[in-house]
UniProtKB/TrEMBL annotation:
Originating organism: Fopius arisanus
Single GO molecular function: K48-linked deubiquitinase activity
UniProt keyword annotation of Oxidoreductase present: no
Superkingdom assignment: Eukaryota
Name of this protein: Ubiquitin carboxyl-terminal hydrolase MINDY
Encoding gene, per UniProt annotation: LOC105265604
Length: 435
């Protein structure tokens, strides 16, 4: 028993260092020490009390919305019970934990707080004033225990029976630690570009892209492009398949990052939106927004795999590899003919536009011209009247294809990374906040 306890303490110590570095600042840790709680004004929307834990809360919200959209119309969402809220939370948490597990040797490490000690400061989910001092990182980590199960059904049952632990002040952290422990320290470090950097910013408390990706996809990679990319001999790991929910980044328009099709075009019309400092969620009930990938979109994605720097061209000698990857004719004689046609000035490069015009002429657009979007921001201070609610936007895709990026409108800027010609009129008379 003592040996098992020592092992668990060592695992917890490694997770703590991976997430926080040597020593989390008290104020940063306490901003993360909140439970999952639903808004009184929007009973399916989670509330984020302080800045920081949106890297966990927003993905959980995205998976909750994904399930809700599959169940029924939005006008029924206002009338859900506490039991229904609990089921939504458990389903979302279970799916996120499941994604993180090793697909071959499936096992799940559930982290819980051992409150058998008499000095537990938690009373009915609250911290009494006289016992507030232990409510810190050291107290939390000293009480963590690990329970292993081997099926997702057991995970779901476990969380359902202990739903209050997700709602109490350490609930967000307990889910985060469970996901990390299920993923495994080695699994995390093997996917992160720099495992020596804490996953949670030690000064501001923001979650890194590795943490966001872990919660969204189960992979702790540091980049959001499709597949891995070779940059100057370095293998930089990205997203490996189409994801259930998506991700769009404000910073993409500055070329600070490149969001690939796997996250831009998820299988459900739900996207986590990343600003410089916060995560919110965009969603729609219009499933035409996530129609299957066309052949042209697939071809463009394959071409870009051979163009890791985003130049929109490849060296001519890679044309054969691209054609073979797309399962097109790729014998030497045909490739030579195509090289001469696509590179008629003998510059030694093949332009993406020329390649697409030749092999994949533009297909009819499957995305609707008009659709309704909804936006969620879990911070009360970022909502009108400090009330966390969904805000409705009527979107239209304009005929003009010139992308007009407005730095004064971050919401429109991030949406244009997905829909370049979009305009949106919001129900509150102003654009919802991304921060």
């Amino acid at each position: 028993m003592a040996q098992q306890k020592n092992f668990q303490e060592e695992v917890v110590k490694e997770i703590r260092t991976l997430l926080w570095g040597n020593c989390p600042k008290d104020d940063v840790f306490q901003r993360w020490a909140q439970g999952f709680q639903f808004s009184q004004d929007e009973p399916t929307a989670l509330v984020q009390v302080e800045g920081g834990p949106c890297a966990v809360i927003a993905p959980v919200q995205a998976f909750i919305l994904k399930d809700l959209l599959l169940e029924g119309p939005l006008d029924t969402w206002k009338n859900i019970t506490t039991e229904k809220q609990n089921r939504l939370l458990v389903r979302a948490a279970t799916e996120i934990i499941g994604q993180a597990a090793d697909p071959i040797n499936q096992s799940y490490s559930l982290i819980y707080l051992d409150n058998d000690n008499g000095d537990n400061p938690m009373v009915n989910g609250e911290v009494s004033t006289e016992e507030a001092q232990p409510f810190n990182a050291d107290y939390f980590h000293s009480r963590l225990r690990i329970s292993a199960v081997v099926s997702l059904d057991e995970v779901k049952k476990y969380l359902s029976q202990r739903i209050e632990s997700l709602k109490e002040p350490f609930g967000v952290l307990l889910l985060l630690y469970t996901v990390v422990c299920t993923k495994g320290i080695n699994g995390m470090k093997g996917e992160m570009s720099d495992p020596t950097e804490p996953v949670i910013d030690s000064i501001y408390g923001y979650g890194s892209q590795s943490l966001i990706n872990l919660m969204l996809t189960g992979r702790a990679v540091s980049y959001v492009w499709d597949h891995d990319q070779d940059i100057g001999g370095l293998q930089l790991r990205g997203i490996d398949k189409q994801n259930t929910v998506g991700f769009l980044a404000l910073l993409e328009h500055l070329r600070y990052c490149e969001v690939g099709a796997f996250l831009k075009s998820p299988s459900h019309p739900v996207w986590v939106l990343g600003s410089e400092t916060h995560l919110t969620v965009l969603f729609s009930s219009d499933r035409r927004l996530v129609s299957p990938e066309t052949l042209a979109e697939y071809a463009r994605r394959v071409f870009k795999k051979y163009d890791p720097e985003g130049n929109n061209f490849i060296p001519a000698n890679l044309l054969q590899d691209v054609l073979a990857d797309l399962e097109l004719v790729a014998d030497d004689e045909y490739v030579d003919i195509m090289k001469k046609k696509l590179d008629n000035e003998s510059l030694g490069i093949i332009l993406l536009a020329s390649f697409m015009d030749e092999f994949f002429p533009e297909e009819p657009r499957t995305c609707p011209d008009t659709f309704t979007l909804y936006h969620y921001n879990g911070l009360p201070r970022s909502n009108p009247d400090n009330r966390v609610r969904y805000h409705t936007g009527d979107a239209v895709l304009l005929e003009c294809t010139v992308k007009c990026i407005l730095d004064s409108n971050p919401m429109l800027t991030v949406l244009q990374t997905k829909w370049p010609s979009i305009e949106v009129q919001w129900d509150i008379g102003r654009t919802p906040s991304l921060n």
